[in-house]
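Protein in question filed below.

…
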Amino acid sequence: VWIFGYGSLVWRPGFEFTSRKVGFIRGYSRRFWQGDTFHRGSEKMVQHPVTILLFDFQACTWGVAYEVRGEQIAASLEYLNMREAVLGGYDTKLVKFHPQEKDAEEPILALVYIATPQNPSYLGPASEEDIAAQIIVSSGCAGHNIEYLLRLADFMRYFCPQAEDKHLFSIEEALISILPCLYYTEESLEET
């Protein structure tokens, strides 16, 4: 079984896997339009994690697909069901994952977790500045929402430099403009 992650799963899967591949799925765009009051938010300060929405065939969402085998399958699906579906409100879908590798064969069918507009935690569109302002003040049991945004932006920069994600980078830019002295390193993020 392959599992595609496009948010915190790209740097913190939380389950054992056999292999991983960087790549993309077509037709979906990543958006910080989902709400969360558990992982990196609270009842008082809702976090903005990402979801993906079906836009058009030209759209691409980059992330990581994890291959799980044997005993890893049940354990990873049980863990992800709690993390993504029960606590996050995400639904599961099957998508065609296209590995980044040049010699990759056909697309791979992968399971993905998506929060739809019908989800009660769905926040919908907002300006990048409003999303950034909410990210700055949100934290929960998994850490601060700033870490979530910056780690995702770093993943895109270092693993998918050819890909565009205007929404993600516009929110990062808005966050940095609100906090002009923002400086972080991998070590400082791990301390938060």
Q: What stands out?
A: Helices lie at 71-86, 128-136, 145-159, 166-178, 186-191. The radius of gyration is 16 Å. Residues 38-42, 184-188 have pLDDT under 50 and may be disordered.
